[in-house]
Amino acid sequence: MIKMNTVIGLMALLLWCSTIHAQQNVYINQVGYQTDQVKKVLTNYQAEKFEVIDVNSGTVAYQGVFELRTTDDECSGMTIYEGDFSELKASGEYLIRVQSPLNSGITSYVFPINNNVYTDVLNKANKALFLQRCGMPIEEKYAGLYARKTCHTDDCYYHPNCELEGQKNMIGGWHDAGDYGKYTAPGSVTIGLLYTSYELNKAQWQSDKWNTPESGNGIPDILDEIRYELEWLFKMQRADGAVYEKVHTKDYVQFIMPSEGDVPQFIYEVSSTATADFAAIMAQSARIYQEVDEAFAQRCKAAAIKSYSYLEKHPEVFPEGGFKNPADTKAGGYSDAYDKDERIWAAAELYLATGKKKYLKDFNELNKIFNSQFSEAGWINPSALGFYSLLLADDKHLNNIQAELKEGLKSYLDHHLEIAKKDGFGIGMQANDYTWGSNGTVLFKAINFIMADYVMNDKESGVLASRHLDYILGQNPNDICYVTGVGSRRILHLHHAPSVADLVSEPIPGIMTGGPNKYRNDAALKAIFSEDTPPARVFIDNLESYSSNENTIYTNAALQLVATYLNGR
Length: 569
Ligand code: 9MR
Ligand code: ZN
Fold this sequence. Notes:
The protein has 2 domains: 32-114, Immunoglobulin-like, CATH 2.60.40.10; 119-474 and 551-566, Glycosyltransferase (Alpha/alpha barrel), CATH 1.50.10.10. A hairpin with a 4-residue loop joins strand 4 (49-54) and strand 5. The chain starts with a helix and ends with a helix. It is of the alpha+beta class. It is built from 16 helices and 15 strands. The chain is 40% helix and 10% strand. Ligand 9MR binds at residues 176-177, 179, 181, 332-334, 436-437, 514, 546, 550, 552.
């Protein structure tokens, strides 16, 4: 009798173990940890202890214990145990073995610890931005396997909503995302983020050796890359200073190389959001290029002032209600009915570029709405970009504003520290943050923490920022590194037309995907996940899932900024 019970008991245990086994995960940053970084290991397995094993010597380098972190985590739906191995600082390659009374064989992916652990992902991300270039041949000597022919050199038609006829040369710039549209707002925000990174980590952005066509010209390659987009942005400005919304086909093309398919592209009407973003980024360019190419800086400044003057004469949102795709157009909406956040960015940058008080007055007036409160930067709200520039400026007229902005940053940080304390994966995300492009949101938050770390030397903030990068690089409920070409379990089926249409097995490396999207805005997500799936789980590495698995240039710029800041620290 007893024997029988034991057998049944054992069988039940085996069954239970195998069910659990299917869900056992050891969550780490697959790309690795900086030497002095806070290092966490998470698991959804009821484990007690762990060992960090040096895989080259086969020895135990560190032993630690797990503590229960959360049960029924709001965003992942999981119960999570957390271990800390921050004390392990020796460079090397490791894996983590999880121990429990029931099973001690579960291990993590192999990961490195060293002092420039993000150099590889950064090099790849920088090259990935070059590979978004439109309107020039991407030669093999720069692109290797990803070489491709020239794309989109035909003149574009004015869409009837421009109230103009004819065609215009719109060659150049970066493709926005996995599709081939080019938009003023997202393009400007991308540059704004890259400039912020440039200002924070100038020494790390000096390379003139990216092996791009401008390498070796004496100008940092990041600035050359940015200029490629700026030259296109100039074409987006109308003679009176207003700026067109976007250049795109009426509908998305299929997964074809950008040089294929003979589909006409259109220029869409001007908008106040595009005009203000343009003014902001041209003013910032004038400031940054001052030391690099004075004549170019002047050109940028003149363009910025012209667009700003147009905005002054047109204080209301235009077109009325914000840009919306006309009835004949499906591709890439980026509709934005609110332009004060773009206008405040423009006012901040115009002031910094010209030193003229009237722009500062405009900023202060608009800041009565924003109250120096930070939100996540992005195409829909770039106000934080203006705040960053003001915070980083050396100007005694800004003392009061800077003090206010620091307070805003502190309250943003305190709020997020509270959220992160409760979150299963230790980040400042809540259920409502997991919408289209949530990985971008994760890193835009990290940028605010980085700013607090930088301007207020707030250590806790720096740690929180690095936890956000850990999440992106593998320490997340999907146990996947959300960036192509790096990490052990990484994105393979990115919704990125050139990566799909080329004959290379993996997508172009160094590209971060969109991330979990609780609204399931595509058929692939709807087919797999139900409405009540925990929000941080609603993700699939599938070509068809454009609302969870597509990249954009501005979210990749956030990756470039965060990884640059944390690298080498
Ligand atoms: O990232 C954008 C997301 O926030 C919007 O909800 C969505 C719908 O307007 O559009 C996303 O942007 C896509 C753009 O419209 C077209 N290129 C690809 C972009 C990323 O998926
Ligand atoms: Zn193109």
